Amino acid sequence: MANVMNFNLRDRDFVANPYPVMTELRAVGKPVWHDEMNMWLAPRHADANAVLRAKTLGRIFQPKQPAELWETFNWLHADSILDSEPPKHTRLRSLVAKAFNRGQIDRLAPRINQIVQDLLANCDEKLSQTGSFDVIADFAEPLPVMVIAELLGVPEADRDYLRPWSQAIVKMYEYGHTEAQQAEARAAGADFAALVTQMVEDRKQNPTGDLVTELALVEEAGEKLTLRELIATCVLLLNAGHEASVNGFGNGFVAAMQRPDQAELLRTKPREIAQRAVEEFLRFDAPLQLFERTATADTEIGGITVKTGQKIAALLGSANRDEAVFESPDQMDLTRDPNPHIGFGGGIHFCLGAPLARLEMTSSLPALFEKFPKLNLANAPVMRPTFVLRGYESISVSA
Length: 399
Known about the structure:
Layout: H1 12-16, H2 19-27, E1 32-34, E2 39-42, H3 45-53, E3 57-58, H4 71-78, H5 88-99, H6 102-106, H7 109-130, E4 133-134, H8 135-140, H9 142-152, H10 162-170, H11 179-205, H12 211-217, H13 227-257, H14 260-268, H15 274-284, E5 290-295, E6 299-301, E7 304-306, E8 311-315, H16 316-319, H17 354-371, E9 376-377, E10 382-383, E11 392-394, E12 396-398
Parallel strand pairs: 2-8
Antiparallel strand pairs: 1-2, 3-5, 4-12, 5-8, 6-7, 9-12, 10-11
Helix pairs in contact: 4-13, 7-9, 7-17, 9-13, 10-11, 11-13, 13-15, 13-17, 15-17
């Protein structure tokens, strides 16, 4: 098979700005083969969308080996919605959606606004003491972690562990891991599972109104979640429930603040443009860059055949910059409309938490600029050295 643009996923320049390479990939006009990743890549919007929706492409989890070392990590993924396909995926998503529904999300709005105001007060105090604060550590990160923890009913004493555990686990979605990172992921998976197991046992004795109780009780056509499915679902919700929000907010914030015209819009019309701005944040610098699927039968995508057993990945960040779909795609436009980005995926794996992420971001973004209308980057933002899950470690700002 021909070598086509075998860019290095771990190259610092590529990770810092993958979009010039993505432009070259789209120019090929069809999915391309990447030798190191041993899979096809779909960089165009139409092809990436087809990858997400094709019924002969699936999320087929490959258990990590040796099995005895990875036992908990493996079933946390094998029994999750993300790594399942119909009919199991259909059953799991239907059960979870009953508990994690729009009504549940809408009821969170007042609490989200209260958490936002509390976090802004802390940021203001830090600003007065040191002259700066960190948009990630002090604002964008704690908000969704606190919201999903409250939604699930995670004890307050355990909430500080959630983000580190999540960070350790999601490093396994990248390409190339150290032995230390693998050990951290295994430990995080075991600790995460132990916490949720204890929560489930507690709810059996003392049911509450939280989502863990709802998930334990939810039933459809005589079907309920097994204990492992319930634990895997909670871990997935805790991970996915904040990763997109944190990274989407941070990526978009930095991009906007580096563009004076867009920064001015946020300073002067934050609430008027909030919804469109959030969608542009997610389009312009996607928090999830790549989503893999495996062919369960020979599948034609964009003029190439993905043979049974081969993988193909939708390059979401590239698709969201496709010249065939977006006018001036490399230009950030916080008033862009329409904006058919696929930052939350598509098809049966469309992000279940998308409404919650949108609610969090459209609540927090205008509130931040209403509180600090003179907000500016204080130092160069520090980016995480990862490609698949793209985001910032630190964004220092002054006001």
